[in-house]
Amino acid sequence: MNIVVCVKQTPDTAATVTVENGKVTWGDAPLVLNPWDEFAVEQSLRIKEAHGGKVTVISLGLEGAREALKQALAMGCDEAILLQDPSFAAADTLVASAALAAALRKLDPLDLALFGRTSVDSDTGVTAAQVARRLGWPSLTLVAAVVAVDPQGRTIEVERMLEEGRQQVRAQLPAVVSVVKEIGEPRYPSFMGIRKASKAEIPTWSAADMGLQAPSPAVTWPALIAPPRVNTHCEMISADSPGEAAAQLVQRLMEEKVL
Amino acid sequence: MMADRIFVYIDHHLGEAVVASWEALYAASTIAASMSSGVTALVVGDGVRSLAEEAIAHGASAAVVRESPSLKDFRPELYADVVSGVLKESRPEVLVLPTTGRTRELGAMVAVDLDTGVTPDAIALEVEESAVVATRPIYAGKLLTKEVSRTRRPQIVMVRSRAFPRPTPDTARKGPVDVAAVTPGASATEVLGYRASDGGVSLTDASVIVSGGRGVSNNGRLTPPPEITDEKQQEIWRAHQGFELIRQMASVLGAAVGASRAAVDAGYIPYSNQVGQTGKVVAPDLYIACGISGAIQHLAGMRTSKTIVAINKDPEAPIFKLARFGIVGDLYEIVPALTEAFRTQLGK
Ligand SMILES: Cc1cc2nc3c(=O)[nH]c(=O)nc-3n(C[C@H](O)[C@H](O)[C@H](O)COP(=O)(O)OP(=O)(O)OC[C@H]3O[C@@H](n4cnc5c(N)ncnc54)[C@H](O)[C@@H]3O)c2cc1C
Ligand SMILES: Nc1ncnc2c1ncn2[C@@H]1O[C@H](COP(=O)(O)O)[C@@H](O)[C@H]1O
């Protein structure tokens, strides 16, 4: 199996994110491998362990994204590539998906491209399906379990999480898969893995390297808003017994027309 | 038929429309006047004509229906072919969709086909210089951003579930319905089957959610049956008793049951109940958090709830900072008392 995992570097989810001079800032909070992408890396390694092959991890980002790539290498990925180009600045999903698709074409022949469910900074969750569309591969998003992979028959069978419940789907390879948390806990990097990753050479591919004329971004972000602090005042209900507290709360909910 | 400048995609599961589709129609109606346009509902599937009438009852002025037996199961590639085809022909300015697992893929693919932008999870729409400016949460709701596609058409905007009200249907409303059969190409995916979720009210649609956290297992007075000797299993057994109390309250309120990640990770309740950054993002009218501390990643999934009630025995728990109402106390005492009080109030 020849597998690619697409990962993004994002601020730590515990960071306090605010707006300063019209720009997003997370202070000195660390940047990390997008938590959802850890699941994608984990899934890729499990498939490799079961069927053999190679896992290449790619990221479109600034120099800092090398750290996210190294994290994936430390977990067990074989190779990493950083996609960087002036035309990727202010990338929306249209641009990012074009760049990722171009990298996948260059890495072809491939069996699978794995993604996280969403990136925790831009929160769009559309990149995987857009890459699939550009490549003409089937898109299997929100995958909770990879049930079977058949490298010879060139099929994959998965269970997807829909709002209505689970859906079982079989698709032809190569395919795009985005995973949710249910696939299982990502492994920690091993000591050997960390050593290997720290020494790894990570090549950079530009748009020209991939033969890509990047599209111009379709969307812009004219304003960032720090949401107003709602309900800073919490009304504490105190009473002599649980029953009285409950009755008081229900009465207040009625008065405030919540019920 | 004069094509409308606004189209709304009606998302459905095997022919049954999701409520969020009607909310999307409402969202579209709020921008229709300033775009001097009606709203055309777009329905794709197999045997889905009745959804056109439902859409018109919910405010659409017209409907376009495209049907084929091979569109019975939603497969994004096939649906995107049809939707992109209709949009290329009718050239609307805006396509509004609800945001669901299906439409996230569909909107993404149609945007690629038409080389345009796509904005998911919009919570507000406004029209500015004939472009739709959407507001949506980023960084798990820690910030909001405005997002607009000024130059590409159509704009593709997906509205978040429960961000807009559901219009009251009026079955007397009538409008033109354009029905046609389509012949989708071959597909590389095959849907083998579905497994329904474990019943109950769906988290993302619920107007009331009662959630439990790690605190739900914390009751030393409960003695597990003697055959459960393993400490971990005893903890899970206690948690099940606690979640039973939560379920009873949820059932009186017609609410869905949620959970913190700590509760999910400890094996108290399945992941499908998890609320938060790596679970479901919800925005009910009332969110009752029981034995949940209020970690930032949990808040990310429920902070836009209209009214938050917290029950926690620690008066310093961060959840109280976000809550509108708080009760400091043991959930094993407060939750049953509240269930009774709700029952009395609601006459159940
Ligand atoms: C990348 C990442 C993603 C995450 N995603 C999520 C997510 O999606 N959702 C999520 O919820 N968390 C998420 N977390 C975890 C989050 O940081 C917290 O660990 C988790 O939310 C804590 O759950 P809790 O409040 O139930 O447990 P705790 O923090 O342990 O709190 C338990 C609370 O129960 C109270 N309590 C105890 N006993 C009782 C009693 N008898 N009666 C009343 N109150 C009682 C305690 O006072 C305490 O406040 C994520 C973390 C990371 C790093
Ligand atoms: N800049 C990027 N580089 C590599 N992969 C990305 C990038 N942005 C998004 N992805 C992948 O696409 C998934 C969904 O991202 P998004 O659509 O931005 O929410 C992520 O979990 C990653 O797997």
What's the topology here?
The complex is a heterodimer of chains A (259) and B (348).
Chain A: E1 2-6, E2 9-11, E3 18-20, E4 23-25, E5 31-33, H1 35-51, E6 54-60, H2 65-75, E7 79-83, H3 93-107, E8 112-116, H4 127-135, E9 139-150, E10 155-162, E11 165-172, E12 175-179, H5 191-199, E13 204-205, E14 220-225, E15 235-236, H6 242-255
Parallel strand pairs in A: 1-6, 1-8, 6-7, 7-13, 8-12, 9-12
Antiparallel strand pairs in A: 2-5, 3-4, 9-10, 10-11
Helix pairs in contact in A: 2-5, 3-4
Chain B: E1 6-9, E2 12-13, E3 16-17, H1 19-32, E4 39-45, H2 49-57, E5 62-67, H3 76-90, E6 94-98, H4 101-113, E7 118-122, E8 124-128, E9 131-138, E10 143-148, E11 155-159, E12 177-181, E13 189-196, E14 208-212, H5 231-253, E15 256-259, H6 261-265, E16 286-290, H7 296-302, E17 307-312, H8 319-322, E18 325-328, H9 331-346
Parallel strand pairs in B: 1-4, 1-6, 4-5, 5-12, 6-11, 7-11, 14-15, 14-16, 16-17, 17-18
Antiparallel strand pairs in B: 2-3, 8-9, 9-10
Helix pairs in contact in B: 3-4, 5-9
The complex binds flavin-adenine dinucleotide and adenosine monophosphate (AMP).
